[in-house]
């Protein structure tokens, strides 16, 4: 039987009744939480549900996801399972650049609608997290643009007392529209930071080659400024994007189509591609630069490069979500990400039992009996339905609900009990009785 699918329904129903009586709703304290997740957490505390086992587990799961983050490469998607009796939160770590636009979407399937909290945190070099943005309370979708080049963590956590399956997808697109009509990032040449004038300066933009007279378009909504001439850029203009706190620079224009103070929308014509200024001896092109309000010139490529399209990872069969599996090979690595290149967290011996919390058809996101999480190759695992061997207990032993000496006993097994060994974890064996009951016993 799948370990994660075993639910303590009596206690769940009791907690549902308690929640209904106390009325989980907006926090009533003077402190105003900054995200729906924090508001919900405060509601649990106001309703005294943080003193219950499930409430405590939910809060701890949210905190743990910030430290036990898994690393992914975008675009990415995977399926997962959350149980009403075992609170779940998952953290996905990725690299974000200024100019990226990420779309995070969580779709759920269950008997009841489930609110899923999506929170994005920045990660500093010491692993400290700071909340950056969060999905709204009435949606399981989040559009987000990083403001710095660094690592970020996306935490996904469903509300308490909900069971169901979910699919998360994370895709990346450019934050700005491409600035040359009929072209895309494949026409970019001479990238940001390359030496100029014998190394005396660096290129503070990118060059997009196109026939003379091709419209140069507004990449963002904004206000035009700086229309004029300069020695290097020839005919130039800026578009000020106050929302993103950037100035977009257009240079080498053959002519202008705007004036200072004019408000433009995405796709409006700023001018026409040319080779004015110091580009007189080169083919017509648009020099395109971006200057931030706080840090000056920044690489414009992430703002306009082609996205990688939708995530295409093959989905894991939903029937396997929540099931338990065991290691086939002598030793198998559990990794931080769904790739053989990802860092190994630990090596597991043959027969080790893991629970499928999610993943793809190639890589399973698993949870160990101690709560550690990571990815293992699907091909390295097998179902626990077929026993490894049959044993008879030499002495009586407690049947435990987890592979832990402090775990709660389910029952007391008499000496001579016939058991099917389904797998191992550390000094414990997962066994099944003749009546189908499963649990853990000490292997000693």
TrEMBL record:
Q: Where is the M23ase beta-sheet core domain?
A: 202-297
Q: Which SUPFAM superfamilies match?
A: Duplicated hybrid motif
User: InterPro entries, from UniProt?
Assistant: Cell_wall_metabolism_enzyme (IPR050570), Dup_hybrid_motif (IPR011055), M23ase_b-sheet_dom (IPR016047), SH3-like_bac-type (IPR003646)
Q: Which residues form the SH3b domain?
A: 333-379
MF GO annotations? metalloendopeptidase activity
* Annotated protein name in UniProt: SH3 domain-containing protein
| Organism from which the protein derives | Spirosoma oryzae
């Amino acid at each position: 039987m799948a370990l994660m699918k075993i639910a303590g329904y009596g206690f769940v129903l009791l907690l549902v009744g308690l929640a209904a009586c106390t009325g989980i709703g907006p926090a009533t304290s003077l402190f105003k939480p900054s995200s729906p997740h924090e508001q919900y957490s405060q509601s649990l505390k106001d309703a005294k549900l943080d003193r219950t086992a499930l409430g405590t587990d939910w809060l701890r799961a949210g905190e743990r996801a910030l430290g036990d983050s898994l690393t992914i490469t975008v675009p990415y998607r995977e399926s997962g399972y959350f149980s009403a009796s075992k609170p779940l939160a998952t953290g996905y770590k990725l690299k974000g650049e200024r100019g990226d636009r990420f779309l995070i979407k969580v779709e759920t399937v269950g008997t009841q609608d489930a609110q899923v909290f999506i929170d994005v945190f920045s990660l500093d070099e010491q692993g400290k997290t700071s909340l950056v943005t969060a999905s709204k309370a009435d949606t399981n979708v989040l559009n987000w643009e990083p403001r710095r080049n660094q690592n970020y963590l996306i935490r996904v956590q469903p509300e308490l007392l909900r069971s169901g399956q979910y699919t998360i997808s994370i895709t990346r697109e450019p934050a700005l529209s491409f600035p040359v009509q009929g072209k895309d990032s494949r026409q970019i040449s001479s990238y940001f930071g390359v030496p100029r004038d014998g190394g005396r300066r660096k290129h503070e933009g990118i060059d997009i080659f196109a026939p003379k007279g091709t419209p140069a378009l507004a990449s963002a909504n904004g206000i035009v400024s700086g229309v004029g001439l300069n020695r290097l850029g020839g005919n130039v203009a800026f578009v000020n994007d106050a929302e993103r706190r950037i100035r977009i620079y257009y240079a080498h224009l053959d002519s202008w189509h705007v004036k200072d103070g004019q408000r433009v929308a995405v796709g409006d014509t700023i001018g026409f591609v040319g080779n004015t200024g110091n580009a007189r001896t080169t083919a017509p092109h648009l020099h395109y630069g971006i200057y931030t309000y706080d840090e000056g010139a920044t690489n414009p490529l992430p703002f306009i490069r082609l996205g990688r399209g939708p995530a295409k990872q093959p989905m894991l069969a939903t029937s396997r979500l929540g099931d338990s599996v065991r290691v086939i090979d002598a030793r198998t690595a559990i990794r931080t990400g769904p790739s053989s290149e990802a860092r190994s967290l630990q090596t597991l011996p043959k027969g080790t039992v893991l629970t499928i919390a999610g993943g793809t058809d190639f890589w399973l996101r698993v949870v160990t009996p101690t709560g550690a999480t990571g990815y293992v190759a699907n091909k390295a695992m097998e179902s626990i339905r077929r026993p490894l061997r049959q044993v008879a207990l030499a002495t009586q032993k407690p049947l435990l609900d987890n592979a832990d000496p402090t775990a709660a006993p389910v029952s007391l097994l008499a000496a001579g009990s016939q058991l099917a060994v389904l797998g191992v974890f550390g000094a414990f064996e997962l066994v099944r009785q003749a009546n189908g009951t499963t649990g853990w016993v000490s292997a000693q």
